[in-house]
Design brief:
Structural class: alpha+beta
Helix content: 40-55%
Shape: globular
Strand content: 15-25%
Oligomer: single chain
Number of helices: 10
Distance between the termini: 33 Å
Number of strands: 7
Largest sheet: 7 strands, antiparallel
Radius of gyration: 19 Å
Order of helices and strands: EEEEEEHEHHHHHHHHH
């Protein structure tokens, strides 16, 4: 008998600096075919049963019980079921998420960490205990503890390269100013007297994603956060997220989330 999926939803907080938990789900019926998908949020997963494959356009890796892996906003990926594959995941947004993921040295593409079977009962008990009144606290604690276990603390004596410092400056500016529809790589480079082609290459190398893709993920994450917080005007959500064209925003939102912003608003009423 096929076991049913479980998905518990939360209304994210309205502080973009903090972690905003969106849902806490148990996927028990994963696709057997490698269908590509894309989300506007982060998803941290743990494999609880079976085997499968996690992949991108460029590479893939087998999944087995106890594997922990992360999917990034605005990045294509697939999860295929190799036999009895089941996993639990937490979806979340927020600027602090990027800081935590940097600390754990998780990068775009295929990033699977093995050997975390001991965490499975913790995740399962947490999902069982999560209710409307505590879902945000329980799911965030699971996510934080798991990322804490993944962290590979950087050697404090290692000097950061010049390129890394430049990328962090650009990244910080993006996270503070993504709501500005005129924000661009050329603008930030002009302000800091950087060569835009040089910075573009360095950003892709160290972030694993291009400048425009990262900016889009910041804006779409913010749009989803606004929807989850009760905003109902697509035009207002677009404007507050750095889009000066509501129609373009709607098309982009649907491409990354599978549903239009209007449909997502209806779902969260």
């Amino acid at each position: 008998m096929e076991r049913k999926n479980i998905c518990k939803f939360n209304v994210a907080n309205d502080d973009a600096q903090k972690i905003g938990i969106l849902n806490f789900c148990y996927e028990r019926n994963a696709d057997s075919e490698p269908f590509f998908k894309m989300n506007a949020v982060f998803r941290l997963h743990i494999v609880t049963k079976g085997t499968g494959t996690f992949g991108s356009f460029n590479n893939s890796t087998p999944l087995t019980v106890g594997d922990v892996f992360l999917t990034f906003p605005s990045s294509d990926y697939y999860i295929s079921n190799g036999g009895g594959l089941e996993f639990i995941y937490v979806s979340f947004v927020g600027l602090r998420a990027y800081e935590l993921i940097d600390r754990a040295e998780l990068r775009h593409g295929v990033n699977v960490r093995h050997g975390f079977e001991s965490l499975i009962p913790y995740w399962e008990q947490a999902l069982d205990a999560a209710t409307d009144g505590n879902l945000d606290l329980i799911a965030e604690s699971v996510m934080l503890y798991t990322i804490g276990r993944l962290c590979n603390i950087r050697n404090n004596t290692k000097e950061m390269s010049k390129n890394e410092k430049i990328v962090l400056i650009i990244k910080k500016a993006m996270e503070e100013r993504f709501c500005d529809p005129h924000l661009s790589l050329n603008l930030l480079c002009d302000e800091n007297y950087y060569n835009s082609k040089y910075v573009s290459a360095a950003f892709k190398k160290y972030m694993g994603i291009g400048f425009n893709e990262y900016l889009t993920s910041l804006r779409l994450n913010n749009a989803q956060r606004l929807i989850n917080s009760g905003f109902k005007s697509v035009k207002q959500i677009a404007s507050l997220s750095g889009f000066d064209d509501a129609l373009y925003f709607s098309k982009l939102f649907k491409r990354y989330n599978g549903v239009s912003p209007a449909k997502s608003i209806e779902t969260w009423k």
